[in-house]
Amino acid sequence: MTTTTSTELHGSAPLASNGTSTHGARSQAAPLGMSELLRLLQLSSSLCPIGAFAYSQGLENAVEQGWIGSEAALAGWLDGVGTHALARLDLPLLAHAYAAWKRGDATAALQVGERIASNRESRELHEQDHQLGLALARVLTNLGVDSALVLRAHGERGRVSYVTAYALGAVHFAIPSDAAAHGLAFTWVEQQVSAASRLIPLGHMAAQRALSEVLLRVPSWVEISLSVSDDEIGSSTPALSMAAAWHETQYTRLFRS
Length: 257
Description:
60% of the residues lie in helices and 0% in strands. The chain has helices spanning 34-44, 59-64, 71-102, 106-119, 123-142, 148-153, 162-172, 177-197, 204-215, 218-227, 238-247. Helix 3 packs antiparallel against helix 8 (177-197). Residues 1-27 have low confidence and may be disordered.
């Protein structure tokens, strides 16, 4: 695998590509019925009580470093992370977890969680993914998803991930895998823009413009994820890794990551 030099997107901080090939063909997306659409909206809603508002995923330190201070820089940063992290790590492993839950293989789903945890590049990113996964597992249990008890039972073993919990919800509510990938990406983008609104001078209209710009990129992230082979799964976002690590010792902060 070839790693390219870092590039800048819309004035954002440098994010290096991992040079992943795009040799795969697009899979046929399963139809999404109205009932499944409503469940996808519920699973992806900012009202879902998992505490995502408390995390910025390194964004707070990126602002502190002066890398993000405008609408354009925010859109560039999110596009970079989406292209080189979500599309090449979270979304491919979401598909793996989805397939595992669909065939009733909880052990394989937990192994996906372990793989995700091993790819989180700072303590706070690891804790964020773990805590959100546990919180979503509690929500799913409350909604009658019995398999979520498996996640809660392994909650202290580093095997629970938000991605695997989200995949479980998607399978239980019969949400197609392709739609689940778009939903997970939307959830991440919306949460990041919400965090940015509290960190930089970004009004409501500017936040909506940034959100709209980045959401246009989500289908391409899903396309990339479909082309990533198993041995190519992994992110290459050095600026995000540094920001997430530096945030652990940042003097003043609003967020837990």
